[in-house]
């Protein structure tokens, strides 16, 4: 059975776990602390980043976007639509949601890994504004409620979950987006259990 190295708070891990679940691909989840740089992680991904999917034959798949695309191919398009226009929309949605996560993580890491006197507040604010603009885009373009969830939806849900966990103030102006997340969770409690925590 494939092994997924992941961390519960990580939005990227959440996205990968939801994608594999959406594709009905069984996997063993292996909680991993990147700060400890465990040998299994460092051997699997030279960047030392999670998530990493280690296949039965020993090959490694990283990052979260590559894991989604792998799950999609393996499952016969269970993660992304087959129709070209619908697939493009899902892929752009996934990309924007991942970019929001990148901005939030950059903002958090700036404060976490630098001495307080060296934190660049302008950089933190710029990253938070990027995330806010991304969420604003989704607030103005709420995904249609559909039974056909795809990689864009799960990526957005992971981003909202991460914001709820680490930067809830970013979501204060986005009531429609929060309502969409609640509907997502009600429709798919199996996926909701995998959001960042």
From TrEMBL:
<dbReference type="InterPro" id="IPR036282">
    <property type="entry name" value="Glutathione-S-Trfase_C_sf"/>
</dbReference>
<dbReference type="InterPro" id="IPR004045">
    <property type="entry name" value="Glutathione_S-Trfase_N"/>
</dbReference>
<protein>
    <submittedName>
        <fullName>Glutathione S-transferase family protein</fullName>
    </submittedName>
</protein>
<dbReference type="GO" id="GO:0006749">
    <property type="term" value="P:glutathione metabolic process"/>
</dbReference>
<dbReference type="GO" id="GO:0004364">
    <property type="term" value="F:glutathione transferase activity"/>
</dbReference>
<dbReference type="Pfam" id="PF13417">
    <property type="entry name" value="GST_N_3"/>
</dbReference>
<keyword id="KW-0808">Transferase</keyword>
<dbReference type="GO" id="GO:0016034">
    <property type="term" value="F:maleylacetoacetate isomerase activity"/>
</dbReference>
<dbReference type="GO" id="GO:0006559">
    <property type="term" value="P:L-phenylalanine catabolic process"/>
</dbReference>
<feature type="domain" description="GST N-terminal">
    <location>
        <begin position="1"/>
        <end position="79"/>
    </location>
</feature>
<dbReference type="InterPro" id="IPR036249">
    <property type="entry name" value="Thioredoxin-like_sf"/>
</dbReference>
